[in-house]
Amino acid sequence: MRIAIVGAGNVGRALGGVWHRAGHEIVWNLRNPDDPKYADLPGEKRKTVGSGLTKSDVTVLAVPWSAIDDACAGIGENFGGILVDATNPINESFDGLDRRGAHSGAQYIKQLLPRARVVKAFNHTTASNMANADYPGGKVLSLVCANDEVAASVVRQLSDDLGFDTVVVRGLEHARQLEELAWLVITLAIKQGHGTDFAFSLLRR
Ligand SMILES: NC(=O)c1ccc[n+]([C@@H]2O[C@H](COP(=O)([O-])OP(=O)(O)OC[C@H]3O[C@@H](n4cnc5c(N)ncnc54)[C@H](OP(=O)(O)O)[C@@H]3O)[C@@H](O)[C@H]2O)c1
After folding, report:
1. Residues with beta carbon inside 6 Å of ligand 1?
2. 56: domain CATH number?
3. Concatenated DSSP letters of the chain
4. Is residue 23 in a domain?
5. Which residues form the Pyrroline-5-carboxylate reductase catalytic N-terminal domain (predicted)?
6. Which of 14, 105, 126, 178 lies in disulfide reach of 89, CB 3.0 to 4.6 Å?
7. How close is the Cα of 64 to the center of ligand 1, in Å?
8. What spacing in Å lies between the alpha carbon of 68 and ligand 1's midpoint?
């Protein structure tokens, strides 16, 4: 697949690195592709956020919540492709979530980009797990949440490519719960000293 990634921080870099090694074509949408910190990124780098997105099979938003309006404006309101929302609507004081009046951050993005096929995914496990999903005790749970079943199945494949145990959650209204789960992960990881090398897993029988 041809995958456009907006943002190449912890999350964008982890996802793009693994997908590149799995054989996908990565196009980075960066504000400053000449920044030396991006010199080692595999694949194509574009300066204008949004340029060429329509030629990609999937676009991934991996920017801080504070940049969401700016990034969505760059993508453009006519964008109608599959848009993976890996962001978390963390408030500025870093003590909770701020969805700007919407039911979830993902639905806020859908308000900004009404034609986008929004899929909430990769927001509720750490970037460390995206880069390396290996655990001795089982597979890392990855929830993929969307209204659009075709878009969900495309992103399910990308999640499987990361080595995750992928479960599709039908209905973008459930993105809110994925964001709460992420806030719990952030609380445990950063505020309560668990670090970034832990994951939730789903048991079945
Ligand atoms: N870190 C995690 O473990 C984790 C896990 C799951 C989800 N998330 C979520 O994923 C998102 C990204 O997190 P991160 O840790 O990867 O952040 P990060 O390391 O701070 O990286 C953010 C990236 O976004 C770019 N960016 C910032 N403003 C932008 C704009 N207006 N337009 C385009 N690009 C812009 C930055 O580029 P510049 O170099 O130009 O600043 C940078 O490449 C956040 O919403 C976070 O809550 C994080």
Report:
1. 6-12, 31-32, 35, 49, 62-65, 67, 70-71, 86-88, 90, 123, 126-127
2. 3.40.50.720
3. -EEEEE--SHHHHHHHHHHHHTT-EEEEE-S-TTSGGGTT--SEEESSTTTTGGGSSEEEE-S-GGGHHHHHHHH-TT--SEEEE----B-TTSSSB--TTSSSHHHHHHHHSTTSEEEE-SSSS-HHHHH----TT-PPEEEEEES-HHHHHHHHHHHHHTT-EEEEEE-GGGHHHHHHHHHHHHIIIIISS--S---------
4. yes
5. 2-89
6. 105
7. 4
8. 10
**Residue 40 located in a structural domain:** yes
Q: How many domains does the chain have?
A: 1
Cα 11 to ligand 1 centre (Å): 7
What is the number of alpha carbons within 13 Å of residue 24 lying toward its C-beta?
A: 26
Domain of residue 40 covers 2-191
pLDDT digits (tens, 9 = 90+) for 167-190: 999 999 999 999 999 999 999 999
